[in-house]
Structure formats: C-alpha cells, structure tokens
Amino acid sequence: MADTDTDKDDFGDVDPRLADKIQTLDETDAAQRANALRLGLADYDLDAEDLDLLETTGDDSDELIYLPALPVLAIVGRPNVGKSALVNRILGRREAVVQDTPGVTRDRVTYKGEWAGRNFTLVDTGGWEPDAKGINASVAAQAEIAVDLADAVLFVVDATVGATSTDEHVVRMLRASNKPVILAANKVDDARQEPEAAVLWGLGLGEPWPVSALHGRGVADLLDHVLTVLPEISTVAKEEVGGPRRVAILGRPNVGKSSLLNKAVGEERVVVNDLAGTTRDPVDEQVELGGKVWRFVDTAGIRRRMNLAQGADFYASLRTSAALEKAEVAVVVIDVSQVISEQDIRIIDLVLESGRALVLAFNKWDTLDSDEGIEKERRRYLEREIEQDLAHVAWAPRVNISARTGRHMEKLVPALELALESWDTRIPTGKFNALLAELTAEHPHPVRGGKQPRILFGTQAASRPPTFVLFTTGFLDPQYRRFITRRLREIFGFEGSPINVNMRVREKRKRN
C-alpha cells in the first residue's frame, strides 16, 4: 500500500535517538541479524514467489547511454489533410490524436518510427496556413520550426481536393528551406482515384506518392522511398540520451505547463495560449538544465472528469496518462492565483497511483509578490490550503516559480534530483530489519481477536518506487503500516517518493 493516507497513527513518538542508532549501525552486525531472521522463515510455509523475492537483490543502474542522432522526418501540410492519421499508420498504432475537425494537432510532436530495420524520428505538426492569426499563427510557426529541424519533409496533400492556394504557399515555404521534400497524395483509397493524385505533379515537387492513411494503401512504397532520402545519422538533431530521467509535466488546463517547458528549453518549443486545453499531444523534448540532460514531456491538461470528455480532449487525457507511465518523476503544476481544487488533488493522486516520484511546482508566484491587499491575503489562504489539502504529500519537494518570468527556475533541478534520489533508494536489509525490531519492541502491534501479529522478516523488494515486503504471522492494521512508513521517512528521508509497504501473511509449517 502506498502512503497516501492522512490519518494519524496511534503509536506516538519514537525515541529521537533511533535515527542515529540505525544510521550508524554496523552493517556487518546488522546483516548477520537479518540473516538469522531470514533463516527463521524456514519454519513457515513459503511459496516459489517468496523464495524468489528473498534471493533477489536488485540492481538499478542510472548510467546514461548515448545514442546516435536518428534522422528526422517532418510531416507538414495544411489543416485536416490527414497528417496525424498518416503518422499513426506509419507508427502502426494510434499514437497521434485524430479527429474530423481542423486544428486538432497544435504543437510539433515527436515519435520514434521504424521501417525495414531502420529507426527514425517522426515529427507531426499542426496545419500550416498563410496569414494565420492568434493561436493558429503559433501553430504555423511550430510547423516552420519543424521543417528547419528536419533532415527531410513529407508534404501531405488531400488528393480528393487537389492543390489549393494554401498548398502552394506551403510549397514556397518548403522550397525556401532547401530541405528534401517528398509529396504524399493522401485519401487515394483505391486505384480509380489515382488520376487525382497525378494532378499534383503541377506543384513542382516531383512524383506524388498516392497513399491512404485510413486504409494503409501505398504507405509501404512511400516509406521505402523515404528511406532513400533520409540520411543514416541526422545532420540536424542532437545526440540522444537513453536511459533514466524522464520528467512529465502535469496539471489541469491553463496552469502554465507549456510555459514551464518553454522556459526550460529556452525557446518557444510549444504553443502557449490563454485558451485552456491548447496542448493535446504529449510534447517530448531533450533539455539541458542545471548541467544535466533531462527528457521533459509537456502533457495535455487533465480535466475534471476524463470519462465525460469527448473527441480530442478524451484522447489527449489518455495520452497524458500514458506519458506519466513512461516518466520517472512528475512535476505537478499548481496555479497559486486560484484555490487548490479537487482536480489538482486528483492529478496528484494519479501520480501516486502510478508510483512515480513527485515534485510540486506552485506557478505564477509573481502574482503574489506584493505584501499588501489581495496578494498577501491569497498567500495566507494558500498556505492553509496546502496544509489541509496536500497533507498526504507533505513529503514532496515544493518549488515556488514563475514559468513566465523564469523566477526560481533554478530551484527545480535540485528538487527533481532529490525526488529521483529517493525514488532510487535502497535500504540495506540488515538496517531495515534492525529498524523493524526497534519499532516493534517499543510499539508492538495491538492484539486483535486474541492474537498479536508479528513481523518475521522485512526486505525491500524494489526501488522506483521503494517497495517493502513484510513477512508476518497475521494481518497488520493500516495504521500500523502507516506508522512504519512514517518512521522510514523520518530516518531515511524518501523526500519526493511514494513508499509501498506490502504484507505476506504466512503460517507456521505443520510438523509431521
């Protein structure tokens, strides 16, 4: 069970000298005592899974792996020609959000693709339009950046409509980029429609490749041609870092998640707009921050009730959950200018359920700078809200930032490092059992139904998140498990990481 309960345990305070006693314990002596307890388990019925657990020590490596930069293929075109549908067809799975309305994709979103044994990076973009205004202008700008940062461009045109004036504007933009361009004539669902694709020779980009993103027709031939154009190693992308340190940015809509990513990257990487729900696809970006390389993922805002969301919002929420599962630490962004809501708490609980490390980023702190009037009053109420509503994650590092101005952004990296260090932590079995012995001696489990459950042995089964297993003679009350969890935090820290404490109730083997 994860330590998300806010109820106080009933076991009082522990001797304050216990932390020093456990931390300075001779490891050899502690290991010998733990081995003796482990041998005592031979008198109890253990299954194969128990024996595997007792034999497994675990090894979590944090070494970074450097990978060659994959070639980059940007997919561009005017709105609603089927770019995201073609991305899904190339990937072989429903990854990009697709809907029969223009403008669903807004940011440039990267995916890893593979064809004929070669790996490459796909960049899906929003629809490009000339003279776009407002948020559409930002979407078009992101598409142009995607072209600049690509090794080749796949230009998608709706063959059933033919070349439009907007398509001709896109052609001029692509020619100015001096990038290799492959022309895909989409929505050619059968051979009878192929003459419609031939008309696109007039765009002057060479042979149009007739495809159907919906049915997959012609996509294999198109990809074979794409591989002849893409270089083996990208000439524009950075060397990639594999392995750990993936950071998901979560929060409800319009709290400043995209602004936070832009400030970390140092450029307008994602579209920022006052319109709630601007981000729909998770935006994955490699960031150098605090002298280290991180993989930041900006996610769509999680709305109040995902099961009531429809269309693009529903699929965006699903992809946000998937991005969290791939991350190691989540930064939950909270807007300090508004009351902490049930929605904020639900997002935090989603992180706890996923077992990821947690950092709380209180954004828009620059709006509370004044020591007078409304700002001072809001700060006072905010601290009360944090104390009451976020008591169950009091262990999470907290940073007060302004993503818009960059204020205190330097505090984000130490908070991430602290949370990840806790998430990776392993406690020596000897010290853990010494702690259990001290706790049970000072505060034994209450008698329930005439019996008093005993803890026979404890071990840390895993890290990421720290997961402990207790072999017991009976069921331990939730309050007692919370008591153990709190003492683990007092002695070993675990700031920023949830802790799971599980039980295995075992009976003594009957003598023949």
From TrEMBL:
Keywords carried by this UniProt record: GTP-binding, Nucleotide-binding, Repeat, Ribosome biogenesis
Transmembrane segments: none
Keyword Repeat assigned: yes
Residues that bind GTP 1: 77-84, 124-128, 186-189
Entry-linked InterPro entries: AAA+_ATPase, G_ENGA, GTP-bd, GTPase_Der, KH_dom-like, KH_dom-like_a/b, P-loop_NTPase, Small_GTP-bd
UniProt binding sites for GTP 2: 251-258, 298-302, 363-366
Domain EngA-type G residues, every copy: 71-234, 245-424
Biological processes per GO annotation: ribosome biogenesis
GO molecular function, one term: GTP binding
Quaternary structure annotation from Swiss-Prot or TrEMBL: Associates with the 50S ribosomal subunit.
Function in brief: GTPase that plays an essential role in the late steps of ribosome biogenesis.
Family of the protein in this entry: Belongs to the TRAFAC class TrmE-Era-EngA-EngB-Septin-like GTPase superfamily. EngA (Der) GTPase family.
HAMAP family per record: GTPase_Der (MF_00195)
Name of the protein this chain belongs to: GTPase Der
Organism this protein belongs to: Lacisediminihabitans changchengi
